[in-house]
Amino acid sequence: MLRHQLIHPQINAILGAAGHHSTILIADGNYPASSKRGSRAELVSLNLMPGLLTCDQVLKAILSAVPIEKLQTMQPELDGPYAIQGDPPVWEEYRRTIEEAGLGLQLEPVDKWAFYDAVTTVDHVLTVQTGDQQRYANLLLSIGVRMG
Questions:
Q1: 19-28, 82-91, 108-117, 120-129: range with lowest mean pLDDT
Q2: Which overall architecture, per CATH, does domain 9-143 show?
């Protein structure tokens, strides 16, 4: 019986086989998960319908299961049809979740194209596709080391 909140068998198996520096993408409902992922990454589709599940819900489950040392977000565009001013509202949800998990980590915004490049490395082991409709909700997690 698992003691953490993550109970999805396939995700647990992937995370159990992952190691330090492996990356996990929690993708929103607009992310091109079939084409923008690492060559060894497995895709788990949890996008039941728009809004279910959310990236933050998946983040909570993953943080309960594995140590995370870095959290990268996709930097919003400054102009064009998808531009927004300031941080996307979903980032505040992430900050609360990170704090509730007892982690002293900050979100690290990365340029959109550099974010895609970071996802498509051989270290990328898992993409969890959600139905989250919030803009700029994609989150790339780097697995840390277990302490104790």
A1: 82-91
A2: 3-Layer(aba) Sandwich (3.40)
Under a CB-based contact definition with an 8 Å cutoff, are residues 90 and 136 in contact? Answer: yes
CA–CA gap between residue 35 and residue 39 (Å, rounded) = 10
Identity of the amino acid at 126 = L
Contact 41, 120 (CB under 8 A): no
Domain boundaries, the chain: 9-143
Q: CB–CB of 75/112 below 8 Å?
A: yes
Q: What is the pLDDT of residues 28-44, one digit of tens each?
A: 999 999 999 999 999 99
- Please indicate, yes or no, whether the overall pTM of this predicted structure exceeds 0.90: yes
Angle between helices 55-63 and 89-100 (to 10 degrees): 20
Beta bridge partners of 72: 108, 140
